[in-house]
Specification:
globular, 11 helices, about 20% helix, single chain, alpha/beta, six-stranded parallel beta sheet
Amino acid sequence: MELYIGNMHWSPSGRTLTKDAAEIKNLGFNCIRMPVSPQTLDDTDPQGRGSALKNAESERIEGAFTALKATIKACADAGLYVLLDLHSCSNYVGWRAGRIDARPPYVDATRPQYDFKREDCSCAATGNPSTVTRIQAYDETKWLADLKKLAGLGKELNVDNIMGIDIFNEPWDYSWNEWKILIDKAYEAISSINPNILIFAQGIGGTNGNQDGTPDTKNDTPHGNPASNPNWGENLYEVQFNPPTMPKSKLVFSPHCYGPAVCTQPMFADLDAQPECAGLVEDAFGDAKCQIVINPKNLEPGWHEHFGYLRALGYAICIGEFGGNMDWPNKSEARHQQRYSYLKDKTTDEQWQKAFVDYCIREGITNSFYWSINPESADTYGIFKSPYDPQSNPGGWGTWGAVDTRKTSLLEKLWNAPDVENPGHAGVITAKHSAINSGIKCRVSSSGMITYTLPKASVVSAKLYDVNGRLHSVISNQKLDAGSHSISRTQLNAVPGSYVLVLNAGDAMHKQMIYLTK
């Protein structure tokens, strides 16, 4: 959305809201995450009216808020739920905003070959740099008022398909404590209008304080192993130490995760072959000619520390965004095609998506939102293909084509995955330990009690490692009879966090990542 009916209607293709909703439902989706900005909620905003409207004339709806309501109703008629996502502090600043009152400089301020920089716009009323000539002032009071307005739409429209509100998109520029406080305030505001709606809260990022008016004093944000750099919105590492106070039954944590088509990261490199790639991201990664090798052993420990462990604490998790451009970098912006032309393997984003789905299945995280339905997002494209190509066919922008069955097949695998018995403690692969289960059945309770069953009498060695493969402790080394045995939480002698448990019993071995609570 973000002020007008989206890109699917930019060209006069004959598509309608009714047809779109029915087609999306028939593909197997049951819910749409709908990004909006504060300006979407104002029918008088000039960018949602008249000549500013971008969509095809036959499908134009005057007034952004009116268009949003029409879309919600079309989804309700098709049997689709809606998650309303307050996606930015400003439709103009858009995805760059990492906080409610975001100010320049933004991350794309010095991006080469890019025509859509926003250094002239700020969501802060004060403390702006000299580049700012347009202020769309936003603050906590306005944000809470907008959340209340969204919470009341179900009653206003007489629909029951608004299942939740994603309270702010990718709040990567907050510290965890700042964001945790805002989560609780959002709950109070929303529940005062609609006590039955779910609160979706994303994670934060790897640094904070970039957009608070003091860009020279940004801080690192804890996220576990420093080598696993979180995507914007992915980092929920500190929940284990400082959780929100709102009811757990109303809270859904909703991390965002992406592969190389969105952001190249050091976890995607083979650091044994190219140690110089450590710590490099995006343009610096490409300029150093870092090859991309998608290895789950380098990825899964980070996912587990950032959000997967929350399943062991009983939290609901729904991936708020994942996806990507499976044809990257060949079909991408010119700057990406040029920068990454050296890559030996140009199927790595598809590999990343498959690895991520496999991880989610093992952790029992099968609820997700795939970005995106429409194909114009330059770094992910969409569920629907498009004839658009930034080099060979720029005139194809805004046209939907056939369904990309590579993506729908991957999603069907996720949707049809069976339930897991031990979420939060699944057989996660780590750099030093592959997940192995050979004859020993093992389970970890919510209190940290480990119960395992031996197929025969054996000398059992039980060891605990950190996620980097360093030995933490030897728990036991003794001969035990066949049958069930247990290790208490106190025997583990470990602070809360993620570990790898290794059990050896004769010719049988079991390895799995576990999360230990207090």
